[in-house]
Design a protein that fits this description.
Blueprint: H1 3-32, H2 37-47, H3 51-60, E1 72-77, H4 80-84, H5 87-98, E2 104-105, E3 111-116, E4 128-130, E5 133-135, H6 140-148
Helix pairs in contact: 1-2, 2-3, 5-6
The structure holds FE2/S2 (inorganic) cluster (FES).
Length: 151
């Protein structure tokens, strides 16, 4: 095997391990709501990947969390197009309705609020996701009704 083939094998092994790692992290989060240090240590041991790499991946992707989250995860876009269309008033309306700020969770664990980058609906700004439900052209007056539809 020449140097190029060895590099190719190493790269595909890396990709395979990365896929296994993401799948394991998603599975653990689906089962427990978020990723604890114990989950990361166990995944590191099982997949034989350094804990620092596991933690790096877990903290890189916004769909993964190492902190507790609510049953319903609100993600409001904070990118420039949404910001220019008054996303801040939507964020403030959600915060006032729930009594929490960004990166916080309601006392009853019903909701958590996150500010995220573009969610792909810039032409319908401002936009947000609640779990996998998409809302666009938001105004503060729509927020209470939307939040009220989640248990
Ligand atoms: S900038 Fe907000 S959805 Fe794209």
């Amino acid at each position: 095997m020449d140097g190029k083939n060895r590099e190719g094998s190493a790269a595909s092994m890396k990709n395979s391990k990365r896929e296994d790692l993401l799948a394991s992290l998603e599975r653990a989060q689906d089962e427990h709501g978020y990723l604890t240090r114990e989950h990361l240590v166990e995944i590191s041991r099982t997949l034989d990947i350094p804990l620092s790499d596991v933690f790096g991946v877990a903290s890189f992707y916004s769909f993964l969390s190492t902190k507790p989250r609510g049953r319903n995860i609100i993600r409001i876009c904070k990118s420039v197009p949404c910001h220019l269309k008054n996303a801040q008033t939507v964020i403030e309306s959600v915060a006032a309705e729930l009594g929490i700020g960004p990166d916080e969770i309601t006392e009853d664990a019903r909701f958590s609020l996150e500010q995220v980058g573009c969610i792909g609906a810039c032409d319908m700004a401002p936009a947000m996701l609640i779990n996998n439900d998409f809302y666009a052209n938001l105004t503060p007056s729509k927020i209470a009704r939307i939040l009220g539809s989640y248990e």
